[in-house]
Amino acid sequence: MIEKNYQPADIEARMSVVWEDSLAFKAGRPDRRDAVPFTIVIPPPNVTGSLHMGHALNNTLQDILCRFERMRGRDVLWQPGTDHAGIATQMVVERQLMERQQPGRREMGREKFLERVWQWKAESGDTIINQLKRLGASCDWSRERFTMDEGLSKAVIKVFVELHRDGLIYKDKRLVNWDTKLLTAISDLEVQPTEVKGSLWYLRYPIEGKTFSPEDPASFIVVATTRPETMLGDTGVAVHPDDERYQKLVGKNVILPLVGRKIKVVADEYSDPEKGSGAVKVTPAHDFNDFEVGNRHGLGRISVIDREGCLDLLDNEDYLRDLPEGASQFAEEFHKVDRFAARKRIVERLESFGFIERIEPHTHMVPHGDRSGSVIEPYLTDQWYVDAKTLAKPAIAAVRSGETSFVPKNWEKTYYEWMENIQPWCISRQLWWGHQIPAWYGPDGKVFVAETEEEAVSHALGYYVEQEVITVEQGREMALDRNKREGFITRDEDVLDTWFSSALWPFSTLGWPEDAPEVQRYYPTNALVTGFDIIFFWVARMMMMGLHFMKEVPFSTIYIHALVRDEKGAKMSKSKGNVIDPLNLIDEYGADALRFTLAAMAAQGRDIKLATSRVEGYRNFATKLWNASRFAEMNHCAVPDGFEPAKAKETLNRWIAHESAHTTREVTEAIEAYRFNDAAGAIYRFVWNVYCDWYVELAKPVLLGPDSPAKDETRAMVAWARDEILKLLHPFMPFITEELWEVTAKRDGLLALAEWPLKPAEPTPEQLAMLAAAAGPTDPLISPALVMPIFDHADFTDPKAEAEIGWVIDLVTQIRSVRAEMNIQPATLTALVLAGASAETRERAPRWTDVIKRMARLSDISFADRAPDGAVQLLVRGEVAALPLKGVIDVAAERTRLDKEIGKADADIKRAESKLANEKFVANAAEEVVEEEREKREAALARKAKLLEALERLKQAS
Questions:
Q1: Starting at the edge strand that comes first in sequence, how are the strands of the sheet with 879-884 ordered?
Q2: What element of type H or E holds 668?
Q3: Which of 38, 41, 51, 775 is in the most buried spot, having the most CB atoms within 10 Å?
Q4: Sorting pLDDT into bands at 50, 70 and 90, what band is 823?
């Protein structure tokens, strides 16, 4: 028995237990042994994280695909898991230690600190997994993985060792994004560009051989910089090759102010003649662009800022080399001064010597660490790198050939741009939490990369015995006694970038590098659902690693979803105070309402503007379905054994079967094409408009009437159509549909495992090949018929039933619309004249007279050869229906009202167009503000069009 009120919280808790106890989501179920696999890997959320709106969207869309394919008979593996999130997790634990006034990481030591991190992970690491379960995610939770699980760690080490052996991993001194607070390199994704109001300093660099004078422009060249403190590391000045002002200086030297070092003027297209002075200082050790300029011209690299963001000048051989006599005093004065304090003092010193031409206010983007908040320093340091350029080539080719495709397709361009301009990938991090790099260093710094310490020791001892650094006897002793080799070789303390282990996710989670049967069955995966911001950082790297180690692309389709913004279109951020917590929405409206909202708004390529009112609206939608199901139950509607909807005799019942088939195909095709919003829109219209508003209403006279064959058939059809709705709606709103299925459908088994109303078509050759591969060498080829049945009721059509019921619906709808436009009160009944009606209309109208009169508020329905004078004429499916309104409405008053409303609409249109025509407004206003004005204009235009239509109709009644 269905409860009177729909209470999502009760249902969600109960259904979660039902699914878990029944192992509904387990991959490889015995009943699916012969089914074609369908695999999705979850983008692993950080173990430190909690569910945010991006997670809610991403996982809702994945769940729709998984539930859809599971109902289509596939063996679905939705692989769940979490990421160890190196920096984020280490920061959380270090902050806890500080807040509890306990010893810090360094005092505690690596081993004890890592024990503490694992302890924290055990206590709090499952938070987001439990939140995903609240959302209804149908992952195979028995297969949950963590990027630092033993098996995944083994995969990480094997990949590192093999790539190093192949020359694709190496150590190099290059610039990295350095966080001076966390004291580690970070990825580009962890860098947050922030607009800062600063200054642009124009500095005079004296030309060698000329007597410097601030009044003599021929004695110096002017360079512009936002970072005067890095000038101490300048090794060149760049000018554009075509800039006539400086052509005579190319190849000559200028003198670095304050320092006195001679640096060369080089011609390079990086310098923009239209920007600043047209000349730029080149500091290869402190700027990514300058690093490349320096490489092109063989300029030296002088690092003058240390790991903590202070000037590092004393004992700095690179800095002190080639300095004129007396310059070392300057080095001593500024040594270990914070970079920003040094900036102020250096500017003062430059001004006192006349080396500053002018200073201009300058707003520019400065990189900050997204976690530490500190200004990121380009830092020259030894790090481990992957030769991403080599690995990227097959990954580019796979997308170009169509092995992997992006949805929407326009993201392929972004992918190509990133991949074709890819730089070496820095994979080392100066952290303790993470996969420690499997590299050991000998006493002379030689590197030994191996999967285990024993293997590294063996390589090292063999090498040093051969080099006669140690004797054979010493080597044997070290091999046997760990204490005797203490300090002989030491392990690299750094850990790997989190993205390195994430790149292996599609196959490491399946048991690779072991010869696990899951690898054969579930790799490659079918679809990846993710956000555009990690196409490069995660998607591209999975492509590279999958192709290199598995020789196949990791997924055939990459669906890129957009952002969830606030209702005005602004990006959500804590600083703006506009963050919407999905868990709060689930608590208030239920997970189903939130899921359906996100799906209904997930149009390809368009950001979601999320308003709480939309979630509330879809909660009402769930309530509507609940009440319709209660109505069916109260009227004893049930599907008898052997019922065949295609054999229904009543026109109304054949019509709902026709509409159900149409909607089934529409929803199926939309999900297959990743048009989630279209699929949600189709099922919403069918439930609310077709089933609840029309079918149930039109069926009420029969259901409430005397017993008859028509009543029996209608009861069966009401229940059958409800069950079809539950199936179609289940991927979107799993909790309420599973509950109603259990209570009302009274079928054996779960809805989550029920058959989808429309089966896949005949399998393609590719699918047949998958079936053969899935069968394995000892199993017979699986019959496609077992996996992909071809026909079912969704092929049913009845144009005649659709024409008759469609005519009734269109007629009532248009009459209601006119009544609303003309402000006719509900109590006022109007007449209807069917003018020049066809024989078909004359024959069907009497059958529906009572229904039409009741639903359209009519006093009478009659036939005539033509429409009477003063009647509003409606064109309904090619035939005229007339409403005589003379004496029913005050035509003059209505005209005045409509004119007034049209005037208001015109004013709104003019106001919006005035703003949008203002180039300054469009350029300077926030994106969401401009978009809001466009929406106001479109709404006003649509309103005006409807008012003009109503005014035109009013003329007919004059």
A1: 858-864, 830-835, 879-884, 871-876
A2: helix 651-672
A3: 41
A4: confident
